[in-house]
């Protein structure tokens, strides 16, 4: 049950980060469209950095959700089958 709650919290955080990134890219796109029509409204460096940060946060939460899902889906190796030493060539 704890894994399920952690997954749900991670997915909620992912959705929130995705919405923030979507909002920011919309603002940047609107600024770019206005610029293309002759306006002097260029997207600001701050907007681009905030968008980049929002994408990083979304990526983090997506990775967390992926790890939680993989942990529940992949079969666990019994302790007696885990090799004691690993031979690397």
SS content category: mainly alpha
Total helices: the number is 2
The radius of gyration over CA amounts to 21 Å
Give the N-to-C terminal Cα separation: 41 Å
Topology order in helix (H) and strand (E) letters? HH
Question: What's the structural domain tally?
Answer: 1
The major beta sheet can be summarized as: none
Silhouette: rod-shaped
Average pLDDT metric: 81
- How many E-type strands? 0
Q: Percent of residues in beta strands?
A: under 5%
Low-confidence stretches: none
Helix content: over 70%
Ordered list of secondary-structure elements with their pairings:
Blueprint: H1 2-36, H2 45-73
Architecture overview:
By secondary structure, this protein is mainly α. The protein has one domain (2-76). It is 72% helix and 0% strand. The protein contains 2 helices and no strands. The longest helix is centred in the first third of the chain and has 35 residues, at 2-36. The chain is rod-shaped, with a radius of gyration of 21 Å. The mean pLDDT is 81.
Descriptive labels:
89 residues; 72% helix; 0% strand; rod-shaped
Short structural description:
This protein has two helices and no strands. With 89 residues, it is mostly helical. It has one domain (2-76).
């Amino acid at each position: 049950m704890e894994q399920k709650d952690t997954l749900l919290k991670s997915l909620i955080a992912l959705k929130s980060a995705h919405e923030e990134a979507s909002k920011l890219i919309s603002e940047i796109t609107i600024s770019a469209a206005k610029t293309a029509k002759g306006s002097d409204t260029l997207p600001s460096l701050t907007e681009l950095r905030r968008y980049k940060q929002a994408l990083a946060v979304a990526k983090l939460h997506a990775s967390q959700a992926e790890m939680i899902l993989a942990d529940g889906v992949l079969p666990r190796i019994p302790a007696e089958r885990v090799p004691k030493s690993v031979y690397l060539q």
